[in-house]
Amino acid sequence: MMIPMKIKASFLYTRLPGFLFLFFSATSAYAHISSTSCADSKTPIPGCITTIAPSTVGNTGLEVNFYAGASQNSTSNTSGIVFSPFETDTITKANKKSSSFVPGVGITYNYAFPREDYYIHAVSVGLNYYHTGASRDGQVYQYGFPQFNNYTYKMNISSNRVMLDGEVDLHPLWNCLTIFGEAGVGGALNNMSYNEQSVLGNGGALNLGGNTHLAFASEFGGGVKMPVNQKSEVSVRYLYANLGKAESNTASDSGASELTQPISTDLTSQSILVGYAYHLG
Fold it and tell me: What 3 state SS string does the chain have?
C-alpha cells in the first residue's frame, strides 16, 4: 500500500532531527580512526576519493557557498484580530504548516587544523542569507464565537534572514566524508499580509497589505559534506530556524477598518538543503 506523500513529508521533518543526532553520535566515536588516508591504505575503501589529499578536505581560507532545498514552515502563538476593547476576533489553526523552496548564498572563512590526529578537523565562521515562505488559512470567529464563522482568511509570510553562522567539522571519515554541526544567530525580515473572504458574500472582509517586521533569528543543524575536487565540495544539511515574529499592518487596504494592534505570529522552519562550496584562492 502506498504511503501518502503528505505523511512521508511529515515523518521526514519530525523524525529527521532525531535520526541525525543518533547518526552524529555514533559516527563521531569512529571519526578518529580515519587519520590514515585512503591514498596510504593498502586496500582502497569503497566510496573514497583517493586523489584528494586529506588537507584539502576543508581548506583554510575563504569559501563561497550556495544552497538550495525545501523547508516546512510553522506558525504558532498567533494573536487575535483586535478591533477595539469590545471586539476581538479569533482565527483558527486549520492550516498552520506549509512548505516552500529555500535558496541561499553565503561566504565563510574556514580554518583547517594542520594535524591529522585531531578529532575536530576544521572550524568556520561566516554570513549566510536564506529566503523562505509560509502560508496559513482557516476560519475567522467574530467575537471569538464559533457560531459567527462568517469569514475565511489566508495569511502569507515571506522571510529573508542573514545569519552569522559557526560550523565545526569532525575529522573526515576515510578522508572523504565529513560530519559537521552548525549554529548561528542573526536577523530576519518577515513580511506578512492578511486577507479575508466573506462566506456569505456580503462584504466587510478585512484585507491588510504586506508589512515588514525585523526579528531576531537563530538556527542550528548539521549534516555531511564530501569533496568534489581540490577546490570544491558538496554537502547535505538539516537546519532548524526560529525566525521570530511576523506582524501585519493595522490599517486595512480600503482604510475602512483599523486594528488597535497588529496580527502577529511566531514563525519557525525546518529545512533540508543541498550545498556547494568553492574555496577561493
Answer: CCCCHHHHHHHHHHHHHHHHHHHHHHHHCCHHHHHCCCCCCCCCCCCCCCCCCHHHCCCCEEEEEEEEEEEEEEEECCCCEEEECCEEEEECCCECEEEEEEEEEEEEEEEECCCCCCCEEEEEEEEEEEEEEEEEEEEEEHHHCHHHCCEEEEEEEEEEEEEEEEEEEECCECCCEEEEEEEEEEEEEEEEEEEEEECCCCCCCCEEEEEEEEEEEEEEEEEEEEECCCCEEEEEEEEEEEEEEEECCCECCCCCCECCCCCEEEEEEEEEEEEEEEECC
- Please answer whether residues 125 and 106 qualify as being in contact, where contact means their C-beta atoms are separated by less than 8 angstroms: no
**Cell numbers describing residue 137:** 488559512
- If one counts every other C-beta atom within 10 angstroms of the C-beta of residue 81, the result is 25
SS in 3 state form for 134-152? EEEEEEEEHHHCHHHCCEE
Q: From the centroid of its chain, how far is CA 202?
A: 40
Q: Which domains does the chain have, with CATH numbers?
A: 5-279 (2.40.160.20)
pTM of this prediction exceeds 0.70: yes
Task: Find the distance separating the first CA and the last CA of the chain, reported in whole Å.
Answer: 53
Summarised one tens digit per residue, pLDDT across range 205-258 is 899 989 999 999 999 999 999 999 888 999 999 999 999 999 999 998 877 788
Q: Take residue 245 and report the three cell numbers written for it.
A: 515574529
